[in-house]
Design brief:
five-stranded mixed beta sheet; 15 helices; alpha+beta
Length: 405
């Protein structure tokens, strides 16, 4: 016999079980007490029937097989029914025991068998009342039938509420799982974005600074090598010292940048001056080509992310000029317009083909990083270049209304 349907849907809680126990034993005590108080001729039989029913009920409650096996539960109900029939035969008060029996039958049997057992129990209660009563009244029929209907409706309602509760519990578990997965995905995305930001920062600052130091030290080595002759020794020595001094300055700036990363502050070049001043200092410290800075329009204070992005793009673009362009001259122009700010970096180097570099994947990290910086702030980044015609890099950032005021 398969497991009862109601058993899997509505497990009786401890409180409901205790209430059912109290109800049945209370009704048995009431029947026995009334038999003794009325000095009924069958008082002994009533007490014996009450004791038998209580013993059968207690044995089933304590038997684990009744709760695990549908067959054992059905046999226990049959024993309870027989003991109750004996009580019903000797006392009309046994009629009230039908109400707790309704719930036991609906709990231990499948729904259709439970309803049939409730109907049979109600009919037995009505028959017991008619045996002990001289006249049939509407209450004799309505009481057991209404009690059975209420029991069926209560159990069905409880089952519906339990199913709804289970669905809500499963939904809450799914929502919690989804929220945890979303939080993990957001953390992963944040980690990736932070890694990309740090990669851009390191590329545009530390890596470029170290590259400049390397170029300056090589220039110092060449100067010392040229100064081995007596005629050029003093001049070469002075040039080497100048290169080394500039290399030391670049190393100090990179050290300041590294400390700035740790403190999560703005770039050192922007801490004690304007963006224009930082760009002018940048042009003065570039080894190799002559670099000139020019300012156009009325300067205004920009948000820190704007200034950081423009300075980093200028650093990265000049690093490309020094390492790849073989240029003799370069110019940085910062232009303030009514609704935007533009940075242009132009050189007269050997140039390249932007489309072919992008298609081949040899464009390096600098150009994608510069483009990403500009687009992150809603700006426009363009590169114009042809082999032998130099290169022009331009970035335009829109100014918000609060900046324009």
């Amino acid at each position: 016999m398969p497991a009862p349907e109601s058993r899997s849907l509505t497990p009786v809680s401890r409180v409901l079980r205790l209430c059912l126990h109290a109800l049945l034993f209370g009704l048995l005590a009431l029947a026995a007490g009334r038999a003794l108080a009325d000095a009924a001729p069958r008082a002994g039989w009533v007490l014996a029937a009450c004791a038998l029913l209580a013993a059968v009920y207690a044995a089933g409650v304590r038997a684990p097989a009744v709760h695990r096996s549908p067959r054992a539960g059905a046999l226990w109900l049959a024993g309870l029914g027989a003991a109750w029939a004996a009580l019903l035969a000797v006392s009309p008060d046994g009629l009230w025991i039908a109400f707790p029996l309704y719930f036991l039958e609906l709990h231990l049997l499948r729904l259709r068998w439970g309803v049939a057992a409730v109907a049979a129990t109600a009919c037995a209660a009505i028959g017991g009342f008619l045996v002990h009563s001289d006249a049939a009244t509407p209450g004799a029929f309505l009481g057991p039938l209404l009690g059975g209907a209420v029991a069926v409706a209560t159990v069905l309602g409880y089952q519906a509420l339990y199913r709804e509760s289970e669905r809500r519990r499963e939904l809450i578990e799914e929502l919690i799982t989804t929220r945890a997965e979303l939080a993990a995905a957001e953390r992963g995305a944040g980690i990736l974005a932070e890694r990309e930001r740090l990669a851009r920062e390191i590329h545009d600052t530390l890596a470029q600074g170290l590259s400049s130091i390397q170029l300056l030290l090589r220039a110092a080595e060449r100067a010392l090598a040229e100064g081995r002759t007596a005629t050029a020794g003093a001049a070469a020595h002075a040039a080497a010292l100048a290169h080394i001094a500039r290399a030391r300055g670049a190393a100090q700036e990179n050290l300041a940048e590294a400390r700035s990363f740790v403190r999560a502050l703005t770039p050192p070049d922007l801490e004690h001056g304007s963006l224009a001043a930082a760009l002018e200092r940048l042009c003065a410290g570039v080894p190799g080509p002559r670099v000139r800075f020019s300012l156009s329009g009325a300067p205004r204070v920009l948000p820190t992310p704007y200034e950081v992005a423009l300075l980093r793009i200028a650093q990265s673009a000049l690093a490309n000029v020094v390492r790849h362009a073989r240029a003799g001259r370069a110019e940085i122009t910062l232009t303030f317009m009514d609704a935007s700010v533009t940075l242009d970096v132009v050189d007269d180097g050997q140039g390249f083909e932007p489309s072919s570099a992008a298609a081949s994947g040899d464009g390096g990290f600098g150009l994608p990083a510069m483009r990403s910086r500009a687009e992150t702030l809603g700006g426009l980044f363009t590169v114009e270049s042809d082999p032998g015609q130099g290169t022009a890099v331009a970035v335009t950032l829109p100014l918000a209304a609060e900046v324009l005021r």
